[in-house]
Every structure is written in C-alpha cells, then in structure tokens.
C-alpha cells in the first residue's frame, strides 16, 4: 500500500453420526471428523471442492488489500497499518510464517494474498502502566475486512524465526483502524455463494486443506457472533470450536439463529474428538 492512496492495503442444525450435547444447551450440533464433509451431498457435487496439485490444495487468490481513506483522527493508524503491510511480503517457502503454518499441518502450493510475513515487527507490552517494547519478532499479518470488503484492521501473530509462536504474553494481537463489526479475514473467495466461517486463521486454512472448503476467520467468539456475510453469500457452514465452557458452540448457535432470520442457509459443525479444525488436520497428518 502507498501512504498517499493506501492502495495496497441450518435446514436446522443437523446431527451427524453423533451429536454434541452441551450441558447448558438443548440444541444438537453435528460432530465433524476429518473425512466427514467428503460425504456431504454438496461436496459430492463439487460445490466446495478446491483444485489440488500434488496432494496440496491450491489457494484461490483474492484481490490485494486496499485501505480506505480514514477519518482524520484515524489517519495515523491507517498510515501505520499501510506501512506494516508494505514492509511485509507474500509468504515464501522457508520463511517464519511458512514454517509456522506447515508446522500446523497446513500445506498449500500458493498462499492467500490476505496473509503476509513481516520480517521484524516490534512487540510492545504494558508494564507498570507504560507501553514498553520488549522484543522484535517475525510476524504473520492478516488483512481483516468489513462487510463491504474494505480492510479495517491487521491481525498479527508474532513468531520465532523457526516458525513457533513467540514466547510473549500475547502472541496474537489486533491492530484496529476502523469499526470491526461483521468483519473477518477473507482467506478465499466464496464458491457458488457458499463459504465456511471459523474462529481462527489456522482453522480456516485447515478447512481448505481438509475439504477444499473456502473458509473465513472471524478471530474469536466475539467476531463469530457479530459476523455479517456479504449479499452474494447465501449459504454458510459454521465450524465452531469445541470449548469446554461452550463459548464457541454458543457463539455459533447465536450466529446461526441470526443469519437464518435473514434467509441465509446455515449448518453448524464442531470437530469430533478435537478442540478445533486445525486439531482435526493435525490428527490426520500425524
């Protein structure tokens, strides 16, 4: 991005072979194994199937991020976000982000343009009420887009050179520029008006590797609750985390109810035997 133009920057809930019953929830949410979606009628018809080369999924590219002109009081943050994105580079084989994602079982021939690798990013913490820089780390950057498709934030995952999460208090942080309502990291374009949503970036990427399902990351339960799909998305598969405190499942139910009221076809699944979708992928890989 240039600083001037900022140019670059349910059918109801089905039960599966088994059904998860929350201690405080009466509705059933289908369980999902690493191979179960392959038996879905829509998958058999090819609606969610991605192209494959040598066994690795090929990420369909999306337009390069563009940062809208912000309001005056947010210009400095927009400039900062644009500068961070400009200094980052597309993911390349062997870089820290590539090592991190492949270490999580995520292997792609090409990587979404919504993700980048920043070689050296300052890490700041609040110590005794003061903001202190405590280190410099490689970082995975992800563009967060609102309902209109405009970037509104950068998500940062701080890493080590060898591709592990950095040993810091909060290795994942969000650099907000504009209102986050309804936003997500749009890793892949929808297929025939269908898309999946998951909490984490790693889970969304894992859904593509496992099933060729284009999935967006809402970056947590709050983001999942508030997610708004664009008008061209008519069908959503919510891939909820399997949380002991039911936070992920509850957020998925709330989102599903709200979207159904708007006429969107919704299904919900939680992973069978694992906390999240990346756990299913790691189970298959190992």
Description:
It is a single chain. The protein has 286 residues and is of the alpha/beta class. 23% of the residues lie in helices and 25% in strands.
State the gist of this model.
Helices cover 23% and strands 25% of the residues. It is α/β, with parallel strands linked by helices.
Spatial strand sequence of the major β-sheet: 1-2-12-11-9-10
Number of strands: 12
Q: How many individual helices? A: 7
Mean pLDDT: 80
Helix content: 10-25%
Ordered list of secondary-structure elements with their pairings:
Layout: E1 19-20, E2 29-32, H1 41-44, E3 52-53, E4 56-57, H2 75-87, H3 96-103, E5 115-127, E6 130-145, E7 151-158, E8 172-176, E9 194-198, H4 201-211, E10 215-217, H5 221-226, E11 235-239, H6 247-261, E12 265-271, H7 277-285
Parallel strand pairs: 2-12, 9-10, 9-11, 11-12
Antiparallel strand pairs: 1-2, 3-4, 5-6, 6-7, 7-8
Helix pairs in contact: 4-7
Structural features:
25% strand, 286 residues, 7 helices
